[in-house]
């Protein structure tokens, strides 16, 4: 017997689970309560399982319903994303683009590119997320954003990473520090000052940890006294003389680090790769593709910071 279950059953199930009430879910879905009840009954009959435990006051997910809920949400998300992609082909002037970027990308690269994009496509809505690398990858995987621009945090097999920029790691220190006048510094010459670093949920810290564990850089990170999750907070701590830090050049080229010195590190030269992160098998909508093309074109035109290079 062929299944009668479709998208409306998944949507109905998700909304009843969300509201814990057939009445409120039916109102949100613009259905009668009887129609919604019949839809859930069809789903349960087809599945052969009870998905909700019903009382006079509350409708709660059964154990089987709790297991099914994340699957249903993912199926509905994928279906909605597929429809959005189709509709966007005919709605370039009325579309929406969602992108995510690391703090340095959003601060340093996106604003001027977005200004150019808005001039050409003024009616396209743009949603920008500024988050850590792990969160960015998660949002791309779950179709919450069209693409992300950030470092390769964990090489997810379901994601494509297209190199966009490379920027060199260096030491961030106060401008009056005794080493500030040097042009370059070896990793094995790092000062004994307290080492301040971004927290482990950031792509930069994750990469430094990998380099340390693999022996590519001759330092250990066990002497880190203070960790912060935001580059602006890191800059404030360095400015107060609480220590020095390690950052790629692009991350150090934001307003918060004005007045501090960036000293590139050598032996070895270590670089971070900034990538365009997309989900495999999912084509960008015309609006998202147009924004990405604008970003690429803008990078060719803009004056990048020293020690930052666009990939060919």
Automatic annotation (TrEMBL):
<keyword id="KW-0805">Transcription regulation</keyword>
<keyword id="KW-0238">DNA-binding</keyword>
<protein>
    <submittedName>
        <fullName>DNA-binding transcriptional LysR family regulator</fullName>
    </submittedName>
</protein>
<dbReference type="Pfam" id="PF00126">
    <property type="entry name" value="HTH_1"/>
</dbReference>
<comment type="similarity">
    <text>Belongs to the LysR transcriptional regulatory family.</text>
</comment>
<keyword id="KW-0804">Transcription</keyword>
<dbReference type="InterPro" id="IPR036388">
    <property type="entry name" value="WH-like_DNA-bd_sf"/>
</dbReference>
<dbReference type="InterPro" id="IPR005119">
    <property type="entry name" value="LysR_subst-bd"/>
</dbReference>
<feature type="domain" description="HTH lysR-type">
    <location>
        <begin position="5"/>
        <end position="62"/>
    </location>
</feature>
<dbReference type="InterPro" id="IPR036390">
    <property type="entry name" value="WH_DNA-bd_sf"/>
</dbReference>
<dbReference type="GO" id="GO:0003677">
    <property type="term" value="F:DNA binding"/>
</dbReference>
<dbReference type="GO" id="GO:0003700">
    <property type="term" value="F:DNA-binding transcription factor activity"/>
</dbReference>
<dbReference type="InterPro" id="IPR050950">
    <property type="entry name" value="HTH-type_LysR_regulators"/>
</dbReference>
<dbReference type="GO" id="GO:0005829">
    <property type="term" value="C:cytosol"/>
</dbReference>
<dbReference type="Pfam" id="PF03466">
    <property type="entry name" value="LysR_substrate"/>
</dbReference>
<dbReference type="InterPro" id="IPR000847">
    <property type="entry name" value="LysR_HTH_N"/>
</dbReference>
């Amino acid at each position: 017997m062929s299944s009668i279950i479709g998208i409306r059953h998944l949507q109905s199930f998700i909304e009843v689970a969300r509201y814990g009430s057939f009445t409120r879910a039916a109102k949100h879905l613009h259905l009668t309560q009887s129609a919604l009840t019949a839809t859930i009954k069809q789903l349960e009959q087809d599945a052969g399982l009870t998905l909700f435990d019903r009382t006079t006051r509350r409708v709660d997910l059964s154990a089987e319903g709790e297991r099914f809920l994340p699957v249903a949400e993912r199926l509905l998300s994928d279906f909605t994303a597929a429809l959005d992609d189709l509709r966007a082909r005919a709605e370039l002037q009325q579309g929406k683009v969602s992108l995510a970027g690391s703090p340095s990308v959003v601060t340093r690269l996106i604003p001027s590119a977005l200004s150019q994009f808005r001039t050409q496509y003024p009616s396209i809505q743009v949603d920008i997320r500024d988050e850590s690398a792990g969160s960015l990858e998660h949002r791309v995987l779950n179709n919450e954003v069209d693409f992300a621009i950030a470092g390769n945090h964990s090489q997810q097999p379901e994601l494509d990473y297209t190199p966009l920029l490379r920027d060199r790691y260096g030491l961030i220190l106060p401008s009056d520090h005794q080493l500030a006048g040097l042009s370059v510094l070896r990793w094995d010459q790092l000062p004994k000052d307290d080492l301040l670093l971004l927290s482990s949920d950031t792509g930069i810290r994750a990469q430094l940890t990998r380099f340390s564990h693999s022996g590519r850089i001759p330092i250990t990170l066990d002497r880190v006294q203070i960790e912060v999750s935001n580059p602006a907070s890191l800059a404030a701590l360095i400015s107060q003389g609480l220590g020095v830090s390690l950052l790629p050049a692009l991350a150090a080229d934001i307003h918060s680090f004005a007045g501090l010195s960036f000293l590139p590190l050598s032996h070895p030269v270590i670089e971070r790769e900034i990538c365009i992160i997309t989900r495999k098998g999912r084509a960008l909508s015309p609006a998202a593709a147009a924004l990405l093309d604008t970003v690429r074109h803008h990078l060719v035109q803009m004056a990048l910071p020293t020690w930052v290079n666009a990939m060919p």
